[in-house]
Amino acid sequence: MSIGVTTPETSSSNSCNRCCLCTTTCTNHITKNNKNNKKKKKNNKNNSRGHSMSSVCDAAKKCIKIAMEANVVMGQMERPAEMCLEVQHDIEVAMEKELNELVIATAAAKQEKMETDLKDFQAEFARFLEHRPHVDWGEIEKLPNGATCQMVLKTIPSKHLANPPQLESYGTLRERPLPTNVAALLQKLVVVKLNGALGSHMGFQAPHCLLSVRDEHTFLDLVVEQIEHLNVTYGCDIPLVLMNSYLTNEETQKTLPKYGHGNVRIKTFLQSRFPRINKETLLPVSTPDLILNGADAECWHLPGHGDFYASFARSGLLQQFQSEGRQVMFVSNMDNLGANVDLHLLQHMLTPPERCAPCHFIMEVTDRTRADVEGGTLIHYEGKLRLLEMAQVPYEHVDDFKSVSNFPFFNTNNLWISLAACERLRRTNSINMEIIANQRTLSNGLNCLQLERAIGAAMKCFDNALGVTVPRSRFLPVKKTSDLLLVRSNLYACRAGALHLNDQREFQIIPLIKLGDEFTQVKDLQARFANIPDLLELDHLTVSGNVAFGKDVVLKGTVIIIANHGHEIVIPSGSILENKIISGNLTVMDH
User: Fold this and answer.
1) Which helix (H) or strand (E) segment is 532 a member of?
2) Contact 512, 370 (CB under 8 A)
3) Helix (H), strand (E), coil (C) string for 38-104
4) What are the catalytic residues?
5) Beta carbons within 8 Å of 362's beta carbon, 6+ residues apart
6) Residues 324 and 193 reside in one and the same domain
7) Are 285 and 347 within one domain?
8) CA 420 remoteness from chain centre
9) Which residues contact 422 (CB under 8 A, 6 or more apart)?
10) Is residue 16 assigned to a domain?
11) To 10 degrees, the CA torsion angle through 468, 473, 474, 479?
12) 387 with 524, same domain?
């Protein structure tokens, strides 16, 4: 593998520019040190690639160290601040050398994929060195709570009115009647599920999509059932596309044959895999020896959903679906059980209202709650709607970002994207997303960085991008066992693969459930609940300590159960708990 590294422009002066955070002038450090570095490499080959910077001079190392230490923000990292071009060039050359060696060490059957992934990584790494993810806080224009398209237009400076951003309510979209030929709409749709994650955060060591959600049906079962229902009902052919990762692809592929006799065409493609980089050296953690010995599992990571655009285009599916006459793709997270195909949103993408320009990108947003304060929000910035993630927020404004009153909307990651616009932007290399470097600590204590991008961050690249405020019901993620307890309960009814809040629940607000460490894993949930309690009238449940539930328990109002350390609480079968606090030790035996 070989990717050219651009040589920085030479300065007419006798010394290069001073790195802004480094007190040492990098005086001609490349010309003076390159020869010495080459000699050192020949005589003393570095046995721990990715853990040192033998190919970067001491002045560069000092600059990087100082810059890195100055840019730690809430667990994320910025690029080394304002490094000079010579230092940046040295780092890129060193990185290219290390990546080439990783490709060479890879088994022949996997080399092509490895080379493709590392080319993508190297391009993103160069952007990481060049650009900061932070926004200029003073230039942000907040979107008012309850805003509609017309309200937003009034808040935008006149200099931006030539290309105004839009925010619309889902209720307004529903006011438009649907066409009589719904099948014609659906025939232009592709459904994409982001299927890169394992369920390991709940102790499920398999793809998250294979976790049982309702009546032994998995996430993937429910998605297939939803699309099959639409295909059968309307006589159409909506394809389902899964973006798998190196973590989920093998097990997911083994499962797909069971859907072979259904009325759903399933396609898959593989997203990239990026190397983690040493925080101190900015070189890969992985080494050829680790690859050859199969000991490099911790050295790699998923580059975030922003990898979708490049990987989807590279798979050939983008071109294939366009040749079939498909125009819109609905992209969402696999674990969001509220992300169902919506005909009104699809209609708005395909046939905009009179006097409205065609929309090429819709981001579904919903009312932000205290549980969502660290997630992405929607802002108006530099004349366009765009996604703002917490990692882009300057440290001194983190509390402002977390304020629900300041930023009332939350990104659900339900996205509607024009295939033609996606193809056009890809062809002109015009899709750009902010790079966020998240810090991680490996099991050996090594601090490293992983470069990630959010798929919604490309919103600013699309013409006439639109934010639609949708009901909270379209955001139903299952990331913790408390979420799993909710969706398995009688709070929800399942119809044609889609979950709907039970009509018998008096209030449409979802109960707040907090489960202690004893309930973290799926096996814990199953062991401590003989069956799922009746939660139809529950408002708030907190459970902590060694607590177990018998069969057919009913929970109403606010219920708090806390077992003291060393004690046990067993809720008897058939118990009805309404507005109760139970603590200490309780065991009821059958007589």
Assistant:
1) none
2) no
3) HHHHHHCCCCCCCCCCCCCCHHHHHHHHHHHHCCEECCEECCCCCCCHHHHHHHHHHHHHHHHHHHH
4) 479
5) 345, 348, 349, 415, 416, 417, 465, 466, 467, 468
6) yes
7) yes
8) 24
9) 309, 312, 313, 318, 329, 431
10) no
11) 130
12) no
pLDDT one-digit tens code per residue, 352-401: 887 778 899 999 999 988 778 888 888 888 888 889 888 888 888 888 88
> Domain containing 572 — which CATH number?
2.160.10.10
Amino acid sitting at position 164: P
**Could you identify the residue written with the tokens 């799926």?**
522
Is 38 in contact with 84 (CB distance < 8 Å)? no
Nearest to 478 by CA among 271, 249, 214: 214
Token pair, residue 395, equals 């440290």
Q: Which residue segment(s) compose the domain that 69 sits in?
A: 29-130
DSSP E strands, 337-425: 361-367, 377-381, 384-388, 409-418
CA–CA distances in Å: residue 473 to residues 336, 404, 454, 534, 576: 10, 19, 22, 20, 28
Decide: residue 307, CB within 10 A, 0-12 exposed, 13-18 middle, 19+ buried.
Answer: buried
Helix/strand/coil for 481: helix
pLDDT at res. 588: 54
Answer yes or no: is pLDDT of 133 > 80. no
Which residue is associated with the tokens 């659906």? 186
* DSSP-based three-state secondary structure for 323: helix
Distances from the Cα of 488 to the Cα of 213, 292, 334, angstroms: 6, 44, 17
Q: Which of 188, 196, 167 is nearest to 234 (CA)?
A: 188
- What pTM was computed for the model? 0.85
3 state DSSP class of 495:
strand
**Residue 305 sits in the same domain as residue 440:** yes
Shared domain check, 359 and 383: yes
Distance CA 514, CA 160 (A): 45
Taken as a whole, the chain contains a residue count of 591
Q: Using the structure block, give the residue that is written with the tokens 């951003």.
A: 165
197 within 8 A of 247, measured Cβ to Cβ? yes
**How many angstroms separate the CA atoms of 138 and 464, rounded?**
24
d(CA 326, CA 344): 17
Residue identified by tokens 């909270």 is 472
Tokens 């913790």 -> residue? 480
